[in-house]
Amino acid sequence: MLTNAQNQPLFPNPTGQQNPAGQPNPAGQFLPFLSRPSLQIKKNAITDDYKVTSQVLGLGINGKVLEIFQRKTGDKYALKMLQDCSKARREVELHWRASPCSNIVRIIDVYENLYQSRKCLLIVMECMDGGELFSRIQDRGDQAFTEREASDIMKSIGEAIQYLHAVNIAHRDVKPENLLYSTKRPSALLKLTDFGFAKETTSHNSLATPCYTPYYVAPEVLGPEKYDKSCDMWSLGVIMYILLCGYPPFYSNHGLAISPGMKKRIRMGQYEFPNPEWSDVSEEAKQLIRTLLKTEPTQRMTITEFMNHPWINQSMEVPQTPLHTSRVLKEEKDAWEDVKVCHVVACFRSAAAAEMYQCADCAHRSGGNDQCLGDHEG
C-alpha cells in the first residue's frame, strides 16, 4: 500500500488483494505472492540522499528517466519524475505492488518534492544497464539469434505478466522498449517497466480508455467496447512474432503510426508467416502465436496457459534454429527508432475532442497524438 509520512494509506486496499501471505482473499482465491511492506513516501529533499545527474537513461510515457547515485554507497539508480496527480499516484502504487517480481523493475524509494513550484513524485528505481530487448539483439554482431533464445525471452516476459495478472493488474503497454536487461552480462535478467498505462482490473471488461502503442494494440482496444487484461496477451503475441522474424505482424503501409488499413488488419487478425524468415521456425511456435493473436479476447490464451505451453516451459526442447531476427532488426534499425517515437497515441477516439479536452488533474492539454496524464474512463 502506498502511504504518506503518517503511514496513512493513500489508496484503499483492493478487494481480494494484499492479504498477508498464506491468507485467502475474500473471493476465496489463493495468491502465491508476498505483499510488499507499506511504502513510505519521503518528504525530505531527494538531494539529501541522492546525487541527481543530468544524464538521461531513457524516456518513459510521462517523461525522462535520469541517472542518480546514492550518497552513502555510491550505487547507481534511475530516477523517474511525475507531476503529482491521481494518475501518477496510481502508477506508483501499481508499480510498487508489482516490484517483488524478479522480472519487473524494482522501485527503491519514492519522494514527494517540489520541482519548479509544482508538487512531484520522484521515483527511485533499480538501474537497468543492459539496455532494451531489441537493441541487445541488434548489437550481437555475427552471433546467431536462435528460436530457443526467443523461447527463453518470452518466458521471462511471461513471468512478469503472470505476476501482474495474478494480482489483477493490466499493464497495457507491453512492448520491447519497456523490456530492459539488468546488466550487459549474458545472464542478465529481463525486466518489464513503465506502468504509466497500468490499471487495476477488479472485474471482467473493466477497462475502457484506448491507451496503446500502435504495433502492439489488441483489436478490442481499438473499438468502443470495454476490454480486460487479455489485451496484454495480444501484445505478448506481437512481441513473440517479432522475436522470431524481426518485423511486426501488423504495420502501416503509408508511413503512419497507425492507418485505417492497419486497424482493419488488426481487427480481423490478418497476418502471415512469410518466407524466408519463417521457413525454419517450428510449427509449435507458429501455433502459439495463433493462440495469442485471437481477435476474440475470450478465445485468446491466458497467461497460465501460456506459461504451461511446452514451447515456454520446456525451452531445452525448443530447436536451436538460427533466425533472421538479428539481421532484419539491424537492417530496419531506423524504422524501429521511428516506431519508438510514436509510442504514445491519443487517449481519445476523436482528435477534435482531444484538442478540446483539458485535464483537471494535471492541467495538461492533450493534442491529437498525446496521452493525457489523467485516465478518466478506465
From TrEMBL:
- Per UniProt, ATP binds at K80
Enzyme class per UniProt: transferase
Q: Where is the signal peptide?
A: none
UniProt lists compositionally biased (Polar residues) regions at: 1-22
The record's section on CDD domains has:
STKc_MAPKAPK2 (cd14170)
- The source's superkingdom equals Eukaryota
Query: Catalytic activity annotated for this protein?
Result: L-seryl-[protein] + ATP = O-phospho-L-seryl-[protein] + ADP + H(+); L-threonyl-[protein] + ATP = O-phospho-L-threonyl-[protein] + ADP + H(+)
Region feature (Disordered): 1-27
Check the record and name the Gene3D superfamilies matching this protein: Phosphorylase Kinase, domain 1, Transferase(Phosphotransferase) domain 1
Looking up Pfam families in the UniProt record yields: Pkinase (PF00069)
Q: Where is the Protein kinase domain?
A: 51-312
Q: Which UniProt keywords apply?
A: ATP-binding, Kinase, Nucleotide-binding, Phosphoprotein, Serine/threonine-protein kinase, Transferase
| Annotated EC | 2.7.11.1
A GO MF term: ATP binding
Q: Which family does it belong to?
A: Belongs to the protein kinase superfamily. CAMK Ser/Thr protein kinase family.
This chain belongs to the protein called: non-specific serine/threonine protein kinase
Q: Which organism is it from?
A: Hippocampus comes
Taxonomic classification = Eukaryota, Metazoa, Chordata, Craniata, Vertebrata
